[in-house]
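Design a sequence for this backbone.
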């Protein structure tokens, strides 16, 4: 593996999860390689106080989503893996069906064919049968479906803390070690 991580944002809600991934990667020795879909840029403007340019500056390198000739489109561009966060149902479907028509779906396809970790964080509710089948197909192909559900058993003091823990855990599937409080269990009083 290498010290590179590809982070892609698609048009689903939850842009703050992807931003947090970039912020956490900035605290590690890993290079972050960012791909933003057109819809992700629109949602960033809607959901974040940060501009698209400010988010791009969080990454070591940013690519145009239409540039299927960019380095992450090739298996010779070794990475630690790819994180698609948030992952729209359109992108999930394209990945599940091998439709590598843009740099995000091509990079995901490369991760699968090269047997590198691919983590998709789909954002949709409720799920229909097609969504679930696409998640199963990606899982069968070797991808990891990790919806960005926040956990509350550690009683986070803020939304920021809960998002950080969620993204630290997501990055751990790529082998990126980001410090976070692990659950230490609970005692049962009888």
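Sequence:
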């Amino acid at each position: 593996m290498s010290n590179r991580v590809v982070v892609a944002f698609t048009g689903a809600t939850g842009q703050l999860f992807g931003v947090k991934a970039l912020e956490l990667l900035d605290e590690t020795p890993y290079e972050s390689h960012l791909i933003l879909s057109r819809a992700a840029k629109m949602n960033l403007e809607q959901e974040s106080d940060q501009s698209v340019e400010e988010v791009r500056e969080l990454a070591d390198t940013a690519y145009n989503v239409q540039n299927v000739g960019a380095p992450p489109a090739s298996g010779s561009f070794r990475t630690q893996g790819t994180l698609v966060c948030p992952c729209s149902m359109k992108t999930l479907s394209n990945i599940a069906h091998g439709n590598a028509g843009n740099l995000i779906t091509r990079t995901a396809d490369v991760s699968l064919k090269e047997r590198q970790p691919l983590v998709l964080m789909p954002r949709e509710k409720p799920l229909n049968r097609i969504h679930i089948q696409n998640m199963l197909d990606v899982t069968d192909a070797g991808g990891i479906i990790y919806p960005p559900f926040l956990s509350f058993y550690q009683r986070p003091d803020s939304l920021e803390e809960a998002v950080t823990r969620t993204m630290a855990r997501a990055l751990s599937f790529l082998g990126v070690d980001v410090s976070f409080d692990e659950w230490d269990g609970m005692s049962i009083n009888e």
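The domain at 4-172 is CATH 3.40.50.1950 (Rossmann fold).
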